[in-house]
Amino acid sequence: MCGRFSVYIDDLELMNRFPNHDVAPFQAMKITNFSPTMVMPVIIESQVVNMKWGLIPSWSRNKSFANKLINARGETLLEKYSFKNLVNTQRCIVPSNGFYEWDTVSKLPYFVQPTDGSLMNFCGLHTLWMDENRQPVNTFTIITTKSNKIMSKIHNRMPVILEKGSEEKWLNRSNNFAVVQNLIKPVGNASISITPIDKVG
Fold first, then answer.
1. CA 115/CA 145 separation, integer angstroms
2. In the chain, how many domains are there?
3. CATH classification of the domain holding 180
4. Which of 33, 102, 173, 182 is least enclosed, having the fewest CB within 10 Å?
């Protein structure tokens, strides 16, 4: 799973990876401990939109879903009512420089980041929900998959991390889910490093 991550991103790398997007909103976004229900810029096909972490389905009567749907299992996206209608056209990318995970046995926290210190882009889904005052609220969830070998030492799940160059394919709404489904997989073992930390935040 993914319950906390860092949004401390190099602006120049972000601009190079997303040359067709206005990434200015990220310049003021330097949070090392981003948690559910917080708001951050999220990348969709043609723009950058501020969204709240924790997907609230458009049909939901209240915001209680938000804390329940911070993650979406990649293996069951087409089976879940909350996600199956989003996979074709409501895909997004959640930029990060690394995420936190707690060892399922020791309960100690670790920071997982790219071995080369580059950008870590999570696959996500997003939707628009109208609150009780009929005000629009954009929300997102991060897709997860089974852990790769190195990650499995501490946890059996991890976020889906896009390989460099796959961003446009994932965001392009002309690609239905069948075209991009192969991107939902564990990242290569050599791509990430895991560092124990004293505490998060």
1. 20
2. 1
3. 3.90.1680.10
4. 182
